[in-house]
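One such shown below:
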Amino acid sequence: MEWDIIEKELNQLRVSSKGENELVIVKGHYKKLECIGVGTDAAVFRFSDAPKYAFKVFSDDKLGKLENEIEVYRKLGPSEYFPVYYGRGLNYLVMSFEEGITLYDCLLKGIHIPKQIILDVDEAINYGQSKGLNPRDIHLKNILLQEGRAKLLDVSEYLNPGNDKRWEYLKEGYLEHYHLIDGKALPLLLIETVRKWYNQTSPESLNVHDVVKALIMLFRMGT
């Protein structure tokens, strides 16, 4: 594979951050790259001539998170719960492309989320902790449903201290309330309303039952 061709394509695009908890903006002219994901720090691309790889390109002001991810992947080593890390460029990482659908899109499309996902994420967290890491920032867009099993994406915050409680709230919400919405496609506006509500509220003051009740109420009002 001629990696300089990919490098040339990557150099044609620009990824810029908009602010805290806002998705990055991608600009530029690139022919063989497909944008397969957009986050708050980076965008992920797939090269048509090298489909087994994913290229995570960071905005210039988020390069510190690129360095964090490299350190995390090196500590994690080979694991069934995380993508394979292959290498880096100036502002991007090269990882394995992972087939599947995020839990976020599962809710949008009414796709069933099996309980095995909960077990897998718990195992992935335990594995990360055994490597001296602090798995956190685990949310709907960072968990991939892959043939009935979980794959965790975006490990850039695993070096940070503290517990943002994202996974605890998701897990409790799933175990206690998911049966009420299982198989039902949730409106995008509803999911985004709850996401923004969460991001604007400190974890200590949140009550997971209130969040889920509000979600279900909004859903019923919209149907």
